[in-house]
Input
Amino acid sequence: MVYIVFNVAYYLVMTDSTTPKVRKVLDARGLMCPMPVVKTGQAIKEISVGEVLEVLATDPASKPDITAWAKMTGNEILKIEEQTGNPSEYRFLIRRLK
Output
């Protein structure tokens, strides 16, 4: 089941034990620096500790920026995927630890 509110999808996902369960999806595609990081910081506060946030972005700077943000804030990057295209799309899975 998926609920979409203001470009943010809230997921109720059934997955196997090896796949992280995504609690919330932030669609930051089309946003440029620093907005993907700003929106990620806001969205992570809306999920509980231990839950996973999925972030979708097209800004090439989002890869180093979100990685640095996670390190500074003490959250865990579980996965970064890059899909080439025009523009390239980045997918981050981030577990809230604090």
Notes: Residues 28 and 35 are 8 Å apart (CA to CA). Residues 1-16 have pLDDT under 50 and may be disordered.
